Model the fold of this input.
Amino acid sequence: MVHSFKVLLGLALIGGMHLSSWAQAEWPKAKPVTLLVAFAPGASSDIVARSLTQKLNELTGGNFVVENRGGAGGNIASGQVKRSAPDGYTILVHSVAFAVNPSLYADAGYDALKDFVPVALGPKTPNIFTVNPSVAAKTLPELVEAAKKSPFSYASSGIGTTTHLSMERLKMAAKVDIVHVPYQPAAAVNAVVAGHTQIASTSMPPAVPMIKSGKLKAIAVTSATRSPLLPDVPSITEFGYKEFDDYTWFGFFAPAGTPNDVVVKLNAALNRAMASAEVVERFAQLGMASAPNNTLEFSNFLRAEVPKWAAVVKSSGAKAD
Done:
C-alpha cells in the first residue's frame, strides 16, 4: 500500500510538472491577458494600451483586453497588479507617475523597484501648457505676468504626475502662484475647455485634438526642443527656463515573480507592436514616440527615474497626503 502511494504521488508530481511547463509554454493562450490601466478611459495611458491590443492579439495569438482601474494617482491599479498571480495574465499599464508616487505618497503601497518586473518602456510625450481661448496671453511670459496680476488656477493630470511637477517647477522659477486643481488625466483638458480653470498642464495626447479644433490655445511644451507634431509651439527653454526637459512616459509592468520567459515574450510582442506602421502613425498623431528596448534597459531606465523624480518632489514640496 505504501509503495503504491509513493508511485501515485510520483506520477502526480511528474504530471504536475508537465502541466506547469505546458501552461507556461502556452502563454498567452490559456486565458485573456488583462492590461490594467492605472487611469480612467481617455487618459494617455489608456490610449497607449488600446492602441496596442489588436496588434498584440495578432502577434501572440492571445486575447489582450484593457481594464481601467483609476484612483489614488494610479496606486490602486499598482496595488492590484502587485497582488495578482505572477503568471503574465495581469499587466500594469502606468505612466511616469509609477516612478514618482513612492516619494510623493507617505505610503504608495508598493516599491517601484522590488514589487514589479519592468517589462517594456512604452512611448513618451512632452508635457504641454495650454490655456482657455478666453485668456488673453499668447506667450509663456505673458501668461506668467497675467498670473501675477490675477488669481489663476491650473488643471493637471493628477497629483504627482510630471504634468503637475512641471508646472510646480515653472511656478518656482517664475516666482508666481497658480492654484493647482488635480484631475483624472482625461478630465484635465476638458476642465480648461469648459473654463473651470484658465490653464492646463497635461501630456500631449488629450490636448492635441483640442488645440487643433481651436478649443485650447497652446503656450509651450516642456521638452528641451519643440515637438514635431506642433512645430509652431515654443519649447519652454526658449523663454529662458534652462533645466526643463520633462516628458510623460508609459510603461508595462508584471508582478514580481513572473516567469522570465513570459516577460521576454511579452517584451518582444510589445516592441513589435509599437514598431508597426499603424501604431507608429497613431502615436505620432498624438505627439508620442517609442524606441525598442529590452527588459534590462527598461529596468536601468526605471532605476534612474525613481531617484530623479524623488529629488523633484522634494525640491517642489509636492505632497499627495
